[in-house]
Design a protein that fits this description.
By secondary structure, this protein is an all-alpha fold. It is built from 15 helices and no strands. The protein starts with 5 loop residues before the first helix and ends with a helix.
Length: about 325
C-alpha cells in the first residue's frame, strides 16, 4: 500500500465501521423493544378511550395498519429497508411520522446542547489547565478535587438546585419553558457541569502525563517560559487523547437531555424520547436511537480525521487505527 492511498483506505474503513454501528444500533434497539412487555396499540387505545379495551376486530385493524400483524422477521426487514431512506414509520401515539417528530424536536435540543458543549469545554479545560499548572499546588489540588464531585452529581438534582436558586430565590431566570435566550441558560449549565467534569478529569490526567515527559525539560532549558511550555507544548500533546472524548461527551449530552428537558419542561429530543418510551412507541424510539448513533458516529469520524492534525505521525502510519483505540485515557 502506497502512502498516497493510505488516507483513502482509512476513510473508507471508518465509513464501513460507521455503517456497521448504525446497523447494530437499529438491530439491537429493534430486538430489545420487541422483547419488552406491553403493546403500543393497547396503550394508545387505553389512553384514548379512558382505559376501555377495544374489541379484537378493531385491535387487529390497527395492528395491520402499522404492520404489526406481520411476523417479526418481516417487520424487521421492512423497517430496515424503510430506515435506509430515512423512514422510521408512523408514531402509534400521534399518527405523525417518526422522522418528522425527531427532526422537529432537534432544534430545541441543539439550543441547549451546543452551548452546553462549549461551556463544558471552557469549564473542563480551565479546571484542568489551572489544576495542573506547576505553581500554586494547593490551588491545583483544590481544583482537581472538583471533577469527581461534578461527575457524581445527578443532573436532575443540579437542575432543581439551579431552579431553586436562580428562579425562585433570585428571580433572575425562568424555571421552565423554551422561549427566549434566558430559558436556555439553566438547562445548558445543567448539561454542561457533568460533561465539563469528565473533560477536566481526562485532560488533567493527560496534562500530568505530558508534564513528566523529557521534552518539557528540554523546551524549558531553551528559555521558554513556564506558561508557554504548559500551554504551547504540553496542552497540544495532551489534547490528543482528550479529543477522543468527543463521542462520549456527545452521548452524555444526548442522554442528559432526556432528564434536563423534563426538569425544565422543554420540548426536544429528550421529551420526545420520554413520551415515546412511556407509550411504547417503537418507531419513534428507534428513530431517536439511530439519530443518537448517527451523531456519535459522525463525531467520532471527525475526531479520527482530526487526530493527525494534532499528531502528524499518525498520517504516516499505514496501520493507524481509530483515535480512541490509540489513546490511553
Amino acid at each position: 500500500m502506497t502512502a498516497g492511498k493510505v488516507p483513502v483506505a482509512y476513510v473508507l474503513r471508518r465509513l464501513a465501521q460507521a455503517v456497521l454501528v448504525l446497523w447494530a444500533a437499529f438491530t439491537v434497539s429493534f430486538v430489545i423493544l420487541y422483547l419488552l412487555p406491553g403493546d403500543a396499540v393497547l396503550t394508545k387505545l387505553g389512553s384514548a378511550e379512558g382505559g376501555i379495551t377495544a374489541d379484537p376486530a378493531e385491535l387487529a385493524a390497527i395492528r395491520a395498519e402499522y404492520g404489526m400483524d406481520e411476523p417479526v422477521p418481516v417487520q424487521y426487514a421492512d423497517r430496515l429497508l424503510a430506515a435506509l431512506t430515512g423512514d422510521f414509520g408512523t408514531s402509534v401515539s400521534t399518527g405523525e411520522t417518526a422522522t418528522h417528530m425527531v427532526v422537529s424536536a432537534l432544534p430545541s435540543t441543539l439550543a441547549i446542547a451546543v452551548p452546553a458543549l462549549l461551556l463544558a469545554i471552557v469549564i473542563g479545560g480551565g479546571v484542568a489547565l489551572l489544576g495542573t499548572y506547576p505553581r500554586q499546588r494547593w490551588l491545583g489540588q483544590l481544583l482537581l478535587s472538583l471533577p469527581p464531585l461534578g461527575i457524581s452529581l445527578p443532573p436532575f438534582w443540579v437542575g432543581l438546585l439551579l431552579i431553586q436558586l436562580f428562579s425562585f430565590e433570585l428571580g433572575l431566570l425562568p424555571a421552565m419553558g423554551g422561549e427566549g435566550f434566558q430559558s436556555v441558560i439553566l438547562p445548558s449549565v445543567t448539561l454542561a457541569l457533568p460533561v465539563g467534569a469528565i473533560v477536566a478529569q481526562v485532560l488533567a490526567k493527560s496534562l500530568a502525563t505530558q508534564q513528566a515527559q523529557p521534552y518539557v525539560d528540554v523546551v524549558a532549558a531553551k528559555g521558554a517560559s513556564r506558561s508557554r511550555v504548559h500551554i504551547g507544548h504540553v496542552l497540544r500533546n495532551a489534547a490528543v487523547p482528550a479529543l477522543t472524548l468527543a463521542g462520549v461527551v456527545t452521548g452524555n449530552l444526548l442522554a442528559g437531555s432526556v432528564v434536563t428537558e423534563t426538569v425544565f419542561s422543554r420540548d426536544g429530543i429528550g421529551r420526545v424520547t420520554a413520551d415515546a418510551v412511556t407509550a411504547q412507541d417503537i418507531p419513534v424510539v428507534q428513530a431517536v436511537i439511530v439519530l443518537a448513533a448517527a451523531v456519535f458516529v459522525l463525531i467520532n469520524l471527525i475526531v479520527d480525521l482530526l487526530y493527525p492534525v494534532l499528531d502528524p505521525r499518525i498520517a504516516h502510519t499505514p496501520d493507524a487505527g481509530p483515535a480512541r483505540e490509540r489513546a490511553h485515557v
